Each structure stands twice: as C-alpha cells, then as structure tokens.
Amino acid sequence: DAHLIEEAKATLIKNDLGGYTVPTHGLYPFQWNWDSAIVALGWLPFDEPRAWEETTSLLSAQWKSGMVPHVVFHKHSDTYFPGPDIWGVQNSPDSTSITQPPVLASVIKILFEETEDRALAESQIKTIVPQLIDYHLWWYKQRDPENTGLVVSYHPWESGMDNSPAWDAALEAVPCVDWEYTRRDTSHIDASERPHKKEYDRFLYLVDFFRKMNFDDTLIYQDCPYRVNDVSIISILHRATKDLLTLCEKIGVSNDQTAYLVKRLDLTEGAISKLWCSETNMFHSFDTRSNTMCKARTSAGLLPFFAGLVSEQQTQPLISVLDKWLEHSTYAISSTHPDDPNYEPQRYWRGPIWIHINWMIAIGLEDYGFSQQAQRITEGSRACIYKSGFNESFHAETGARSGGADFSWTAAMALYWLL
Ligand code: DGY
Predict the structure, then answer these.
(1) Measured between alpha carbons, how far is residue 142 from residues 62, 152, 219, 222, 242 in Å?
(2) Are strands 292-294 and 31-32 parallel, antiparallel or unpaired?
(3) Could you say which of 3.30.230.10, 1.10.10.10, 2.40.50.180, 1.50.10.10 is the CATH number of the domain covering 2-418?
(4) Which of 73, 86, 95, 157 for a ligand 1 pocket mutation test, highest count of atoms within 8 Å of Cβ?
(5) Which residues contact 386 (CB under 8 A, 6 or more apart)?
(6) DSSP secondary structure string, 234-259?
(7) Would strands 285-287 and 401-402 be described as parallel, antiparallel, or unpaired?
C-alpha cells in the first residue's frame, strides 16, 4: 500500500492548480463542486491547510443567492466545452449557473472532527458554516418553493450522474439545441465511454435556457422543461443538512435559519415515500413534468441509506435488492443495475463503478447495521483500485479503467477510505 499511497498523493499534487484540484487535466480542467468536496478528504491525511483550502476556493464562487456552482472557471482552459462563454454567467470567478450534489457540508463535518490543527479548524469553520447555511437555505427555498419536501434538479449535470438511464425519459421532453458545436470530451476519451450526441443536444439546450431566463430561480422553476426530484441529490442534501446542524450545535450556532433547516428535514422525511417503488423495492427519481417515476434501477436508489431515509418496512426489501446486486458483482456497486435494460458496463453513468458513490452507500449501510455488506462494498472498491489505479470510474464487470485517468476523487477516496 505504501507505494499506492504515494501514487495517490502524487495524483492530487499533479492535479493541484493552486488552491483547487482539477478532477483530471484535459477532460475536466476546472474546479468541480462535488469533486472538490471529495478531494478535500484526500488532502486531509497529509496536508490539512490544503484540505480546507479546497473547500474555501469552491465557496469563493458562491452566488449572492446562496447557490454554489457546479463548475468554477478559475483559470482559462481551451480543453473543455462548454466554457464560460456558453454559460454566460458574469461573475467573478466565472462559473456555471447550476449546482451539484451538496456533499460539501458532510465533508466539512469530517474535516472539523478529524483535523489535528484545532486552531485552524475553529477559524475556518467560522466563515464556512454561514456559507453552508446559505447554500442549504437556497436549496430548500429555491428548489422546493412549494414546500413539497423534495427539491428539484434542472439538469442531469446537477446530479453528476450525467447520462444515467434514470434521465432518459425526462430528457426526451427537452428540445435539442439549434446550433452546431464541437464536443471536447470525446477528444480525450473514447466515445463508447461518454454520453451520446442526443443527450448533449439536450444538455446544451438547458444551458441556453438558463441564460435566456437570466438565471432567475423563480422563472426557471416555472418553465424548465426538465425538472426532476433526483433521489441522489435529495439523499445527499438530507444527510448534509443533518451534518450541518450537528456542526452548528457543536459550535453553538442556533437561530431562525437552523430552526428552518430542522423543519425542512421533517418535510423531506414525510415526503420521501413518493420515491419508493414497491415493484422494484427500490427508490427512484421522479419526473415532476410528466408526473412519472424514473424507473431505471441505479445506484442512486441506494443512497437513501446514506441519508437515513429508509423506513423500517423498506429496509429488508432494499437490502435483498442490494444482496442480489452484490451477488452479480465481482467488484462494487455499479452505477446501473446489471439487470436494467439500459445497463452498459463501460459507459459513464450507465454501468461503471464510481468509488465515491460506493463510499456513501457503505457509510449508509454501516449506519443501518449492515456491516457485512458495507465491508463487501469497501473490499470491492479497493479491488478496483488495486487492479486499475486511480481512474474516473471502473468497468462494472472487469474492474478495468473507464473514463479519465489520474483522477482526483478516486485518489482521494483511496487516501481517505481505502488505503
Ligand atoms: C461533463 O462535461 O461531462 C461534466 O460532467 C459536466 O459536469
């Protein structure tokens, strides 16, 4: 392991652009929101100030509304499309106009609890906690203005699970963008491991749409042709809000805002059964435009464990699904269930194994007392890294590399969780 640990550190150092870490050079040459949160955990064991800095550089791009963008364009790069000119946001630093799964507060809680430099932790937390509160308030108020208990997402890029089969039907309702463009991703990675053009056409339509709406939260909520209750975002947000409130308690922050967040947790707990399907015995996302469930069986459907949102009655059926899934898997949990008709073991979020998702599922299973399954997932994740190194993701069946190489969040998970 000593050699792998050194390699993982070297990967983060290589991807460090000074205060933030790119997911990988070329394919993703900027700062990504949930990548950076996970990456902070990788810096934690060997450079605590740098771990904090990863999070504060991300928060430096927070919008006045509280939103924390999905990509921050700190420095120019021409290896990525769509860049800041296409998003059309005029902020400093430049950013996209959407967000990503808000795992950040859960990470900050870990940094606060596990870093040795207490003076640094105490001083960081003073500025970070109010920013996190603003971010979470933004999520609930702007993404669930009707108080349904379930926030919405406006773009598959917000889920981070870009081409998950869960989005197929909802995306069909989105028009195609009417201008020609040149993708850059497929010049770095084989097209068989990336989304199709029909998906990109719609991804870009939505980017244009946000700009045409002048990024107005209310207008977008009303008119966005893609509007989904994403079970992964909802679960990650729920866990992160609980972690944020625990942190607030520890540092003695208690006010109207924290009381409001407590109420929001209750609302979500009362609403989550809308995402449970008694035919598949899993959780699914929900398309609020067509009022239908996104029936694909994906790893997102296991994340309610991470959130503590699985009820007593749902626990055994969901564990049975998980056990069968693991029986099929030499490695860890694939992003799409092998029996799903749209499963593709090598294509991005339609099959490959993503280590940080497995980490969250394993934490959730431990919380629910299913240590054996959590252990099995941990070992399978470790086996991917032993076999193929620090890749973006791993072929669902062979554990071979898939997506980008020298990938920060996989190296970070190795350093924090697996090695
Ligand atoms: C991409 O460009 O592939 C990213 O996933 C967007 O976040």
Answers:
(1) 15, 9, 11, 11, 19
(2) unpaired
(3) 1.50.10.10
(4) 157
(5) 4
(6) HHHHHHHHHHHHHHHHHTT--SHHHH
(7) unpaired
Quick check: helix, strand or coil at residue 268? Answer: helix
pLDDT (mean) for 87-111: 97
In what helix (H) or strand (E) does residue 94 lie, and over which residues does it extend? strand 94-95
Specify the residue with its C-alpha closest to ligand 1, atom 7: 157
Question: Is the torsion defined by CA of 119, 121, 122, 128 positive or negative?
Answer: positive
> From the CA of 157, how far away is ligand 1's center (Å)?
6
ipTM tops the 0.90 cut: yes
DSSP state letters, 342-404 = T--TTSGGGS-B-HHHHHHHHHHHHHTT-HHHHHHHHHHHHHHHHHH-S-SEE-TTT--EES-
pLDDT digits (tens, 9 = 90+) for 52-87: 999 999 999 999 999 999 999 999 999 999 999 999
Catalytic center residues? 162, 392
Q: Is the peptide bond before 49 cis (omega within 30 degrees of 0)?
A: no
Tell me which residue of 62, 65, 8 sits closest to 39, measured CA to CA.
8
Task: HSE, CB side, 13 Å, CA atoms: give it for residue 287.
Answer: 21
Peptide bond into 225 cis (omega under 30): no
pTM of the model: 0.98
Bridge-based pairing state of the strands 282-283 and 276-277: antiparallel
Which residue type sits at 47?
Answer: D
Mean pLDDT score of the chain: 98
Task: Check if the beta carbon of residue 211 is closer than 8 Å to that of residue 88.
Answer: yes
Backbone angles phi, psi at 110, to 5 degrees: -65, -45
Ligand 1 centroid to residue 59 C-alpha, Å: 19
Distance, CA 366 to ligand 1 centroid (Å)?
31
Q: How far is the CA of 35 from the centre of ligand 1 (A)?
A: 11
Pocket of ligand 1 (CB under 6 A): 70, 157, 162, 185
**Kindly report the CA angle at 132 between 131 and 137, in degrees rounded to 5?**
100
Q: Which of 28, 77, 183 to mutate to test the pocket of ligand 1 (most atoms within 8 A of CB)?
A: 28
Query: Where in the chain are the domains?
Result: 2-418
- Which strands form 94-95's sheet, in the order they lie side by side? 31-32, 71-73, 94-95
